[in-house]
Design a protein that fits this description.
This protein is mainly β and 580 residues long. The protein contains two helices and 43 strands. Strands 29, 31, 32, 34, 39, 40, 41 and 43 form an eight-stranded antiparallel beta sheet that branches. A seven-stranded antiparallel beta sheet has the order 30-33-42-35-36-37-38, with no helix packed on it. The two termini are 46 Å apart.
Length: 580
């Protein structure tokens, strides 16, 4: 065979392998808006209809047809010569009123940040609140820095790296600012190159910048985080921590915001020192101004999505006038050792902005891509990939004899008569305790029988929950039990996160369903943003989570609440996975 024919065959073979490896993942392009609205985008259930809507600067778009609505007076932007008034857009229930709000970083280079208050279905423009005059660099962040399930804003401006906690309280609009770096570490603050994640394996999330990383102390509200020097590349975009080579420590993914290149930085430990080795992944297009890690094809390995930011500096960057593209990079190769990535070009790609989202926007259990940039607002809906969801068989989480598969303070829990029992009747329960599964779960139907013993007993079943580092508490949803006059039975509570009842049954439904002093069958059903609770077959909660940022996976936990002598009994615990 000639050399040319061998090369042609090799190219065809590689193409076929890429298609097979990609699981035939395909995307359908949906044009939401052709106008330049923003370079950041967010999602959330704005109007409480159970569907995820889109925020893009001055606008929000109502799902499923993405009908446009103005948040305030619409500004006309020129994509050829101008810049956006929204470099990043996030969503959260800022004031704790149960309605999703829009958070906007207005520009770049020490620009302000505001939040727009959801009018709760009332007509008219949304009220704007300033929460900082200086939000800073071109890669502002909003995420779970503290590991407690409560996202915060993270900015780098005027020599300071800071995080801001939203009020989550209707009585105030003020955010709480916490500076991270000291005066001697001003070089930690950068105009580009930003991320957060657990760099050193201590279960606390650190902050990464171009020149290194700031080590999170146990009390994250204190300043003077220790700064460790490292070169993650100036004028890069997001810095993402992940164990890419399977050696047990965190590596870092980065990309060039205004030139060519995508890299992973290998963490190497030797002789008590840490060094970083840069490995190039791809450099076929420039201006990869935002990047997101996500399991696109459902194979339990983390891929990533990025693209070319259209006219980042109005065509003046290297490759600035080359065609815009959008790619997902499939993680392949051995689980241990240097990672390999297969690039998959997404048809009709519009590139990215300075920030975008990857999430299941339509509830079909496939990850989609939502983008707003100078090309307009678009959704890339995944059509191929993993097969449609099918329900699995129920499996037992508790064998009735051992704590296999569970972890927690075993001084607070015991096994008796084939049931898990928390607490005791001989003295006060000193504090909340949780016996948790070692494995996380996403979409499922959980069934179990439970009962409470003791006056004023209170407990609950945690789900889509996580442990709070270095603390006995957890953070996440709870199917509540007990309380004075059975107040909490059948209610959905948000433990340690929003600290409030999200939904609860009326008295008539509860009185009909509840059988005091007897075993009660609790059913918890989670599918996408929808959560349903049942007591003895009666539906007590039908709730749709409006905040797309809140995790839809997590551990399951059995609680005994601190307080008077009491016991919580749990048995016959089974789970059926949905969509697997």
């Amino acid at each position: 065979m000639s050399r040319c024919k061998r090369m042609a065959a090799l190219i065809v073979t590689l193409g076929l392998l890429a298609a097979i490896a990609g699981g035939e993942v395909k995307f359908k392009k949906i044009v939401v808006d052709t106008e330049f609205r923003s370079e950041g985008v967010a999602t959330g259930d704005v109007n409480h209809d159970g569907k995820l809507d889109i925020f893009a600067g001055d606008m929000w778009y109502e799902a499923p047809n993405y009908k446009p609505h103005a948040l305030h007076a619409i500004r006309k932007l020129n994509p050829s010569t101008g810049y956006s008034k929204c470099f990043a857009n996030f969503s959260d229930d800022v004031n704790g009123d149960g309605w999703i709000d829009s958070i906007v970083v207005v520009g770049w280079n020490n620009c302000p940040a505001v939040w727009l208050e959801n009018p709760q279905g009332k007509p008219g423009f949304w009220k704007e609140h300033l929460f900082t005059k200086s939000a800073g660099n071109e890669t502002p962040l909003y995420g779970d820095l503290l590991g407690d399930g409560k996202p915060v804003a993270i900015f780098s401006a005027r020599g300071k790296v800071s995080w801001y906690a939203p009020p989550r309280n209707a009585k105030t609009t003020q955010w709480t600012r916490h500076d991270v770096n000291s005066a001697k570490d001003r070089q930690a603050a950068t105009g580009h190159t930003f991320g957060f994640g657990d760099v050193n394996g201590d279960s606390r999330r650190d902050i990464l910048t171009a020149k290194g990383w700031l080590e999170a102390p146990q009390d994250r509200t204190k300043g003077d985080w220790t700064f460790h020097r490292a070169d993650f590349g100036d004028r890069s975009a997001n810095l993402i921590t992940h164990d890419f080579d399977g050696d047990g420590d965190a590596d870092v993914l980065s990309s060039s915001a205004h030139a060519y290149g995508i890299w992973w930085h290998e963490q190497i430990k030797a002789d008590g020192k840490v060094t970083w080795k840069r490995h190039e992944i791809f450099k076929e297009f420039s201006q990869t101004h935002a990047i997101i890690l996500a399991d696109i094809n459902g194979d339990s390995r983390m891929d990533f999505v990025t693209g070319k930011r259209y006219y980042a500096h109005n065509g003046k960057d290297p490759g600035g006038k080359e065609p815009v593209v959008l790619y997902w990079f499939e993680r392949t190769g051995p689980k241990k050792g240097a990672p390999k990535f297969i690039p998959h070009k997404i048809k009709g790609g519009t590139g990215v902005g300075t920030q975008f989202e990857v999430l299941d926007i339509n509830g079909d259990k496939k990850l989609d891509i939502v983008i707003s940039n100078k090309k307009g607002v678009h959704v890339f809906m995944q059509e191929g990939g993993p097969a449609a969801a099918t329900e699995g068989k129920a499996v037992s989480l508790f064998d009735g004899k051992t704590f296999d598969g569970w972890e927690g303070n075993l001084k607070a829990f015991r096994i008796e008569d084939g049931a898990i029992v928390g607490g005791g009747l001989k003295g006060r329960v000193p504090r909340n305790e949780f016996l948790c599964t070692k494995k996380p779960y996403g979409d499922f139907e959980l069934r179990l029988k439970c009962k409470l013993v003791g006056k004023g007993a209170n407990a609950g079943i945690q789900f889509r929950t996580k442990r709070i580092p270095n603390h006995h508490e957890v953070s996440g949803y709870q199917a509540d039990m007990g309380g004075r006059n059975n107040f909490y039975w059948g209610a959905l509570y948000d433990e340690s996160r929003r600290r409030k009842i999200l939904a609860k049954p009326d008295k008539a439904t509860l009185n009909k369903a509840l059988k005091e002093s007897e075993w009660t069958e609790y059913v918890i059903r989670c599918e996408g943003p929808k959560i349903q609770l049942f007591l003895n077959g009666a539906k007590t909660v039908d709730y749709t989570e409006p905040n797309a940022k809140i995790d839809r996976t997590g551990i399951i936990g059995l609680q005994i609440h601190g307080g008077p002598p009491s016991e919580a009994w749990y048995k016959d615990i089974t789970i059926k996975m949905l969509g697997q």
